[in-house]
Amino acid sequence: MTAFTICRNGQAPSEAALTGSPARAPKPARNQTIDVLRGLCIVMMITAHVGAQTHVNESVHFLRFVSGAEGFVFLAGLVMGLVYRRKLESGPIMTAYKAIWRRAATIWVVHCLLVFMAVAGNGTLYNVATVPKPTSFARFELIQLTLSLRLQPGQALNILPLYVFLLGFTPLVFELMRRRMTWPALAASIGTLIFMQYRPGTGAWVHESCGNAFPPLQWQGLFVPGLCIGYHYTLIRDHLIAPRRKVLMAGLAGLTVCIAVASWVQTPTFEFYDHARWDAILWHRHPLRLGRVAYFLISIAAMYLVIQLALARFRAARPALDGLALLGRNSLYAFVMHIAIAIPLTNLAIERAHWMIAEVVTALVVVTIYVLARHQVGRPWVPN
To answer: What is the pTM for the complete model shown?
Structure first.
């Protein structure tokens, strides 16, 4: 999920806003490539929750084993690293950390409200199997489970608690990087992810009534590397990407295509490996597997370079890329608004209707979310 923006209007707050100084420092330019990638994750999220079996959904998930969830988590860390590196260098450190914790509190409130509303309406306004009904809980149990973030039902209501956890410990990672301990931070993150391959249930606190959740100890394996890359972005860009851009683009794109072909081609006479055995080890999202993480990092690096090239040289692609960038700048807003549409549509079971209806409805929901974001409909009441 995010990859969520840092403040209400989708822009990083100025130094003056953080320090209380009357001086107005110019805001740094946004990285449009990252906004486009976040917008693509939004589209993947919408189509997966509205029409998972449609050709529209398959088209936006052209990289198998890469979903909006991985993109949100990694890009959220990347944006945090980019934005807060500047804040930590230019203003009081604790002011920046308090802003991160306020963001975590905002996401906690949004999650609680969404869960309360979804559960309250289930059984009367709609019937969704993955969302519990109010009668499923004892007196006050619903309130206690929701406030403690243990209630994480399906229908996209299980992702925001992950962000609360990740943002909660983000200042600790920043402190390590500020003290030139980036490599120990990365080693701890990767080591935890490896450990979770063998003990995937460690640290789980989700209620038994919930389905697939997003265990923080696993998904930090995408968020923390994103934080580190964002924090050291200038160094990486100048010393790694810039001198080798063409080689990196060709190599990453070729490697991504090879992995994609290897994972898609499954015929009785041409098997690359035992899918029944190895898919669960390499590619599953619940629990998050190392193969999926490695493939995502390769793919997102290739996509970053391709989108940069398209923004610079292919004017015909600009309208579509600008549309994705707008969705990326309004990620939390788009997330909330799509839930309000996706849950009632689930009740209508459009995927079991005529295939053309499912395709059209899925595409229309994407367009609707874009129009709502562009015109900021309900923006005073919906956070971003």
So the answer is: 0.85
**174: its two tokens:** 């920043």
The rounded mean pLDDT for the chain is 84
Q: Which residues contact residue 100 at a Cβ distance below 8 angstroms, ignoring those fewer than 6 apart?
A: 80, 84, 167, 170, 171
Instruction: Name the nearest CA neighbour of 326 among 274, 384, 382.
Output: 384
Compute the distance between CA of residue 198 and CA of residue 201 in angstroms, rounded to an integer. 9
Secondary element (H or E) of residue 270:
none
Distance from chain centroid for Cα 123: 29
What is the residue extent of each domain of the chain? Answer: 15-375
Query: How many Cα atoms within 13 Å fall on the side-chain side of residue 289?
Result: 14
Where b means 16+ CB within 10 Å and e means fewer, 52-61 reads eebebbeebb
Query: Which residues on neighbouring strands pair with residue 270, listed in sequence order?
Result: 267
Is 265:272 a contact under the CB 8 Å cutoff?
Answer: yes
| pLDDT digits 0-9 by tens, 138-179 | 878 999 999 999 999 877 888 999 999 999 999 999 999 999
